Amino acid sequence: MAVATKKPSVLSKSALAKVDQIIARHKDQPGPLLPVLHALQAEFKYLPEEALVRVAIGLDIPLSKIYGVASFYTLFNLRPKAEHVIRACESAPCHVRGAKEVIEALENALGVKVGEDTRDGRFTLELSSCIGVCGVAPAIMIDDEVFGNLTPDMVPGILARFN
Amino acid sequence: MEFYRSHVLVCAGTNCSLKGNRAVREALVQEVARRKLDREVKVVETGCFGLCEQGPTIVIYPEGVLYCQTTVADIPEIVETHLLKGRLVQRLLYKEPVATKPVQTAPELDYFKRQVRVVLRNCGLINPEVVEEYLAQGGYQALGKALTTMSPDEVIATIKNAKLRGRGGAGFPTGLKWEFARKAAGSRKYIVGNADEGEPGTFKDRLILEGDPHSVLEGMAIAGYAVGADYGYIYIRGEYTLSIKRLKLAIEQARKLGLLGRDIFGSGFDFDVEIRTGAGAYVCGEETALFESLEGGRGEPRVKPPYPTDAGLFGQPTSINNVETLANVAPIISRGADWFRSLGTERTPGTKVFTLTGDIVNEGLIEVPMGITLREVIYDIGGGTKDGKTFKMAQTGGTSGGCLPQELLDVPMDYDNLAAAGSALGSGALLIMDDTHCIVDVAKCFARFFEHESCGKCVPCREGTMRLYQLVDKITRGEADEGTIPLITALAEMMYKSPLCPLGQTAPLPIMSTLKYFRDEYDAHINEKRCPTGTCKAIAARVQVAD
After folding, report:
1. Cβ-defined contact of A69 to B296 (cutoff 8 Å)
2. Is residue B190 part of a domain?
3. pLDDT tens column, B177-236
4. Cis omega before residue B508 (within 30°)?
5. Cβ A146–B297 below 8 Å, yes or no?
6. Domain end (from B434, B454, B472)
7. How does DSSP classify residue B346?
């Protein structure tokens, strides 16, 4: 299974216990897989392969199907990302208000291209489809926080808040 | 209940929170306490007021005075001048783009004058986290009326009679959908609230759920009674953290008051609601893809028929309704079908919530009667284009809708008229663009969106969206020739007919509409290798190399 090219670190005993708790909590509700994956993602910030193996056994769902589901949705990560994930919107309403320039400013400030992590492991820069705050376009999300009405010169100040 | 002489409403919607509303509210609470006014003046957090461009907004009742673009530094002056001395803080009043005199209260604003608020009746007026405020506005009375004085068939007849059509974009008659689900055979039936609002430019459902979550729950419970469903799911985007929080709280409050749960209003009717969060996939807004996702799979659409009302969620009869549709239900039950039909147009009564985005003065959320023209929305309510630039086009219905030029500004906004104009009403997104934007560059942006969001299940969409993007991209690079547009046209013809779901079927529509109305700009790129607005850098670079 090509969940990750490099083998993820082995989860601790307490982490595995957490995984089992999450499975137990959702096991009996109809359609438990997405709620379980959401809970795992919240716990580990990505979906570790070992955890998914336990989910497969615990929910009696083939691991191949779980991989198919986990890789389908953009909010689920199959590899650890940097400490902060920046999701920049480039849908039409943001595009029209100058998202391109904002994304270029992000790339320049971070020294990475879209889709890459900074070398110090602090930021991942991703493109995102609409994040639903088009009234304040162009907008980006850093982790759970939204920043709107952006101009390129605001980028360094926003990034500084995460240092 | 305590009595206050003034209520100060501070918008706590996401758009205002991006502009520092929390600090403004905290400063207000502190300043009011410091001036020892806290027994006379109450600071209330409300949902979105709609005028996002002017946020953070503060409304002070009973006068109804509106202050715009407030900052922490303005608070001492507002408290001292307005709340203590009873005078207006002139400099914070809203100024119309053309008028000379500042406007005191919200209803006087051009922005609000043309609006009719049914769905947004409580948004910006009540604290969405306090159920008593919803009750005080007549909340849950419609549910009580339905459960205790009407039969399920009467509820369906009322909704049918009101001619309520689905506000998610398809415009299917809601009453008919409920009737199909009611008549279908199944061991259990479901109501699904579709809050997977992924259409770029649309954020109405988020602001409805942030501003008035109980209105959606009430609509779902009435739908459940009509259909014969005892359980409902709200499938909401994972990105909508504030909506999820308020919805969770609202469900708990409703359960505590017996407005959800067993034997509601002693009628013997049971209904409960559960929230499920999406995980970032545009296609899940399509009803059958949403069911797949909710059941724990990849969000890939199913082949229809069977339709959801026969075999939907978990294979059972399901009525899936958009958030805005559900928020319309309680007012129709309370005030009757005739009242609802008195709003809007003959074929599409009622109102529509639109989100204004792009190069427009008043970006934000509005609710207007169906049938209002695009021109009225853009100029009378939206305040026209930003910075006095020239209007180029408006895209209605979000990224899957068409682009309309100046000549079509007088088209009435409803499902049928916009479809006839080669566009769509869709979810109510309105994107305004001025003439600094290159039409081909914008078309490329649309094409990339669909290429990224195609779920990959059916070939015409998976391959078609990719080829469409490549062809438009070629034009922006100056690599297209006379065969490119015929190829795009042939591909579009195929895609209108063959994909499984509306994602693929509508993907070519925005591009074809730009071709229809702005063909000369395409020709400049293809024949003269020139981008008239200078946006397409690759074409310029190519021409330089050739020279």
Report:
1. yes
2. yes
3. 999 999 999 999 999 999 999 999 999 999 999 999 999 999 999 999 999 999 999 999
4. no
5. no
6. B434
7. S
